């Protein structure tokens, strides 16, 4: 087996395991994530996330996700700016993956900031057993103009959220196709109960990323393919820890913050490792020449 075939096999295995992990997580949460569950953490069921500092203004887990996401995305973009442009086809793939994933994650962080603001103004009611569609229907029955504005705002935020995340995991897909997919995925998501919102997002993003990567031609599955596939695996494991060990373990480290921080850190690490690998390879080729 050649080195390239080995890298392809490693990447394929990582994507398969990531998909299996998120499929099991999604099935378990959709079937059993209910108040009084013996398996899922009660605090996680109540909020749909592992949230610490709920009563501390500007310092709950959602606020912290915003702060750390902005800083880590900025750091990742700085590294991208310094290292981008290596004349290696494989690194062009890495350039796209890092840039669009970081920009999508920034939008993800901004949404956390919005949820954090709901904690402060008292409008947050926890992960309710109703869907976004039901909430929109309630708002549509109200006659005030402010209710109509809320509907438009919620829909636009939801669609833009999906556009950012989808473009990050499938950077080669055109913005037009991504936008259409974002609308469809948002509509389906409005029928998902609040407590399952994170599971739905996690499932869609993981499947979209893994499918788009697995569908690549085998000859294109090189070091970057294996590196980004490998870092995707722990990202699919953290939600299991969050939903089952929030109170006793993850809350000591910022709750959901751990998941949010892992994404830009691990993606940037995969990018740097890929750059180092190809840089060393180019240096070796230069010496031989």
Please provide a written account of the structure.
This protein is mainly α. 74% of the residues lie in helices and 0% in strands. The protein is built from 10 helices and no strands. Helix 1 runs antiparallel to helix 8 (197-214) and helix 4 packs parallel to helix 9. The longest helix is centred in the middle third of the chain and has 33 residues, at 89-121. The mean pLDDT is 92.
Which structural class fits the helix and strand makeup?
mainly alpha
Low-confidence stretches: none
Order of helices and strands: HHHHHHHHHH
Number of contiguous helices: 10
Please tell me how large the radius of gyration is.
20 Å
Total strands = 0
Task: Note the gap between the termini.
Answer: 27 Å
Determine the fraction of residues in helical runs and give it as a percent range.
over 70%
Shape: globular
Average predicted local confidence, pLDDT: 92
Largest sheet: none
Beta-strand portion reads: under 5%
